[in-house]
Amino acid sequence: RSTPKPSSAASDVYKRQVEIVAEFNNDKVVLIDGKRFRQGDFLNDILIETIENDQITFKMGNTRVIKSVGN
Question: Which residues, in sequence order, are CB contacts of 8 under 8 Å at separation 6+?
């Protein structure tokens, strides 16, 4: 039996550098690979579902990936 491979979207998330979360006027912004994103924005076909101070939740279809800030 082979183990299932992560979707290409999920592996794309794992490669990303989540650098920092900042808050402007109660609106959180995350810096990923040097670009700013807000909650609800898309990174390619990947939804940035939630932005918290220490982690970001990405959603691709039914799959969620939680990534720590600074990784």
Answer: none
Contact residues for 58 (Cβ-Cβ < 8 A; gap 6+): 13, 43, 46, 47, 48, 49, 64, 65, 66, 67
H/E segment holding residue 20:
strand 18-24
Note the pLDDT tens digit of each residue in 14-23.
Answer: 888 899 999 9
Q: Please give the model's pTM, rounded to 2 decimal places.
A: 0.80
Is there a contact between 68 and 54 (Cβ–Cβ < 8 Å)? yes
Distance between CA atoms of residues 52 and 12, nearest Å: 20
CA distances to 13, 23, 41 from 30, rounded to whole Å, are 14, 9, 10
